[in-house]
UniProtKB/TrEMBL annotation:
<dbReference type="InterPro" id="IPR025218">
    <property type="entry name" value="DUF4426"/>
</dbReference>
<feature type="signal peptide">
    <location>
        <begin position="1"/>
        <end position="22"/>
    </location>
</feature>
<feature type="domain" description="DUF4426">
    <location>
        <begin position="26"/>
        <end position="145"/>
    </location>
</feature>
<protein>
    <submittedName>
        <fullName>DUF4426 domain-containing protein</fullName>
    </submittedName>
</protein>
<keyword id="KW-0732">Signal</keyword>
<dbReference type="Pfam" id="PF14467">
    <property type="entry name" value="DUF4426"/>
</dbReference>
């Protein structure tokens, strides 16, 4: 049952990605950092409840997965992820990531609040196992439903 929920949340996150940006991936050395940010109302209620995600028209979610591009089968990596979001006025919002494990899959989720039509710039530090690290920066505009 839980693997079906993980599959559903992964599918929803991947399906929502084209609405904001096509392939959301950054290569950092030997790391493939996959990321998506979306309004939390896109997550089905049952999935949100099982992962403790607050669904609200002013709440959003970042999902990050890190793969080793030098390994066959690209296994998921554990990491320490920190970051912040800032709007165009310079107001910052700290991001607190939590690890979610489901079998071999490892995801990092962070929730944050936003104002309608707010454009946010994300600055994220990734420190993956094996002393590999780097920065991920992107921006995205969010809309309340």
């Amino acid at each position: 049952m839980k693997s079906r929920i993980l599959f559903l949340i992964s599918t929803v996150l991947m399906l929502m990605s084209p609405l904001s940006h096509a392939e959301q991936l950054k290569n950092i050395g030997s790391l493939e950092v996959h990321y998506s940010a979306l309004n939390a109302t896109f997550i089905p209620p049952a999935v949100a409840k099982s992962y403790g995600i607050k669904r609200s028209s002013a709440n959003a979610l970042i999902n990050i997965a890190i793969l080793d591009k030098n390994q066959a089968g690209k296994p998921a990596l554990t990491a320490n992820i920190t970051g912040k979001a800032r709007n165009l006025l310079g107001t910052t919002k700290p991001l607190t990531f939590r690890e979610v494990r489901e079998g071999k899959a490892i995801y990092y989720l962070a929730e944050f609040r936003f104002a309608n039509e707010e454009k946010l710039i994300f600055d994220i530090e990734v420190q993956a196992q094996g002393n590999r690290s780097g920065k991920l920066s992107f921006q995205q505009q969010f809309y309340s439903e």
